[in-house]
Structure formats: C-alpha cells, structure tokens
Design a protein that fits this description.
The chain is an alpha/beta fold. The chain is 47% helix and 15% strand.
C-alpha cells in the first residue's frame, strides 16, 4: 500500500517512493489522503503522446516525470517526417532527437522497462 511505502521511506529503508501510470486524479487522492506525493511518476510519454497536462501537474507538485516507451515502440515516431528532418538537419538519428525532446522537457526517458 502507499502508506506502507511511506513507512519504508520514514524508516530509512528507501530514499524515494514512486508510482507508475498515475493520473492527476490519482495523485490528488494520494495527497489528500496521506499528505505525501511520490517522487516520480512513470508514464507512457513520447512525441505522439506528450502528456502536457499531467506534466504540468508533476511540475507544480515537484514530481519527476519518467517516460516509459519514449520511442513509442519504434517506427511511427522514428519515421515521422518532422523528426527525421530535424535529425537530418543536426546530423543525428531520429532516436537521438526523440530522447533529446524528453530531456528538454525535464523528463527521464526509460528505453525499456519490464516486470521481473
């Protein structure tokens, strides 16, 4: 539970606690019920799904945005004409352009995430 994670942090067993795929409503509920917000929220984010509103909530509340599937699972983003043109103009790959997009938005891209 979230309260158990809070106790782990309070007991010094973990430094940070985070969540995955939480919406703004989920974050508001955590804050309302416990007064504690996560340090990070891992969400699907890429140029085709920029998550502007949720990123704004994260920024306002001091939550780090961690992007899973930052390359949108491949071709659709990496073959986007605008991204390819930017890559060509700068002598880099489309993947590098997309990863730079994430970092310029202060998001932490995670190229691969899986359950153990």
């Amino acid at each position: 539970t979230w309260k158990a994670m809070i106790r782990l942090r309070e007991d010094g067993l973990v430094r940070s606690i985070g969540v995955s795929n939480f919406t703004a409503a989920h974050l508001e509920r955590l804050e309302r019920e416990t007064g504690v917000l996560p340090s990070v929220n891992q969400i699907e984010m890429h140029p085709l799904l920029p998550q502007e509103e949720l990123r704004a909530v994260h920024a306002a509340k001091g939550i780090v945005t961690e992007s899973w599937s930052p390359l949108a699972r491949g071709r659709e983003v990496l073959e986007d004409p605008s991204i390819v043109a930017i890559a060509d103009d700068h002598g880099v790959t489309p993947g590098q352009v997309v990863l730079r997009w994430h970092t310029q938005l202060s998001a932490v891209p995670i190229p691969k995430s899986a359950d153990p």
